[in-house]
Amino acid sequence: MDRVRHVAVSRRRGRAAGESTAGEIRSVALDLFYKHGFQATTLRHIASRVGIQVGSLYNHITSKGELLFDIMETVMQALLEDQGQVAQEPDVVERMRLLVYHHVRFHGERAKEVFIGNSELRSLNRQQRARIVALRHEYEQMFQKELEDGIRQGKFLRVDVQVTSFGILAMTTWVSSWYSARGRLSLEEIADIYSDMVLRGIWNPAAGQLQTHLRRVERDNAKRSLAAAGASK
After folding, report:
1. What is the pLDDT at residue 74?
2. What number does CATH give the domain 64-231?
3. What is the pTM (predicted TM-score) of this model?
4. CB-based contacts of 108, cutoff 8 Å, min separation 6
5. Which residue of 86, 106, 185, 187 has the fewest C-beta atoms within 10 A of its own C-beta?
6. Start-end ranges of CATH 1.10.357.10 in the chain?
7. Where in the chain is the domain with CATH 1.10.10.60?
């Protein structure tokens, strides 16, 4: 029995060590792709930084291209997961505010991955590139859907939905190129500024005061939170 337990423990430790090495490989590759570019980074560079032989890399990855694809796909999946949480908000104006807020925060926090995603799409093979483009399209569609819903409800101006969504995404994505944690404003403050800027640009004055609407949404959400907390007791 002791021998069986020892073997099981050894296997668990082996899996944990393998996962740790795989994570380090990904982290090192991310840093090297960011600093030197995908084409200039070799598997030998990655292995040297991790402290293993080149051949040992293949215990964890299939190719350098697959490693790049994994980084880019993971970014898009994380963004879509954030969108899925935002979609639970019942108010269209608050959903748009949250979409912009989360987009800015994500791109400020994960600037290296964002840079690689924007600069290395050409380095993927055709199938990988099609997958990333499809995920990006799905992400863009959420912004367009909220614009359309807001226009339909009379909350947003009748803007060109596609052009406006592209403008919002381009403006907010660029945060990744200049944001610094040592800067004057926190990332949360910057995200608030961008959210406010976007909403002021698309808000329909015929719907009343934007700040009045947002305060009402905040009160409603607070009431729902209290009700949910009471129901769970």
Report:
1. 93
2. 1.10.357.10
3. 0.83
4. 175, 176, 179, 187, 190, 191
5. 185
6. 64-231
7. 11-61
